[in-house]
Amino acid sequence: LNSAITNDTQFEQALQNGLVTISGQKLGVTYQSGSGDYAEWLLKADPMADFKPGQIVGFRNGAISLETADADHLFVISTLPIVLGNMPEDTWRYEKAAFLGQVPVHVRGTVRSGDYILASGRSDGFGVAVAPGELEGSHFSRLVGVAWESGYGAFNTVNVAVGLNTALTQTA
Predict the structure, then answer these.
(1) Fewer CB within 10 Å, N- or C-terminus of the chain?
(2) DSSP calls for 3-18
(3) DSSP 8-class letter at 44
(4) pLDDT by residue for the chain (172 residues), tens digit each?
C-alpha cells in the first residue's frame, strides 16, 4: 500500500479518487454478472398491468404503459438487471425498466444485427427493425436501440443495446 496513506480517512479518499496502489497498480472494484443492464423501478400507469421482460414501454406523466405513441421516453422491461435503482416500498405498483445496457427485446419480423429497433406503434410491447440506411427523421421518437443479434422468425427476441443510440450522429 502507498506509504503516504497513514489513516482510514486518507485511505477512503485515495480509494475514491483511484489513487490506492499496490506495487504500482491502481486498485478498483469490479462487479461481474451474467446480467446486462442498468434499470430502475418505474411506476405503472395501471398498477394491475402485467408487463413481461423484453416488452417496449412508453413513459408519460410519470408512469409507464404499453402505449408508446407520444411517450416522453421509451424503455424496455428488464429481464435481469445487474443494477436496479429507485427501490419503492410497494414494488407491485412498479416495474423494472432498463435505462442502459444490453437488453433482450421482442421484435416483430426479421431483424439483423446492426438494425435500429423502433417501438412498433401498436401499443403491443414489440419493436420493429429498420436497417441503418432506411432510418428516417420521423423514426427518432420511436427509437429504442440497436440490435446486436439477428432473428429471422415472425417474432424474435434479440439482444439490443439501449441507451447507446448513435443514430443521430450517423445520419447527420
Answers:
(1) C
(2) TT--SHHHHHHHHHTT
(3) B
(4) 444 545 666 656 655 565 556 666 666 777 788 888 999 999 999 999 999 999 999 999 999 999 999 999 999 999 999 999 999 999 999 999 999 999 999 999 999 999 999 999 999 999 999 999 999 999 999 999 999 999 999 999 999 999 976 555 555 4
pTM: 0.82
At residue 133, what are phi and psi to the nearest 5 degrees? -75, -10
CB 34 within 8 A of CB 40: no
**137 vs 121: CA distance, rounded Å:** 16
Which residues make beta-bridge pairs with 98? 39, 76
Which of 36, 32, 166 has the alpha carbon at shortest distance from 105?
36
CA 49/CA 92 separation, integer angstroms: 10
Dihedral angle sign, alpha carbons of residues 51, 53, 55, 58: positive
Beta strands in the chain (DSSP E): 21-22, 25-26, 37-43, 56-60, 63-65, 73-77, 83-85, 94-108, 116-119, 127-130, 143-147, 155-162
pLDDT value, residue 1? 45
Q: How far, in Å, CA of 152 to CA of 160, rounded?
A: 15
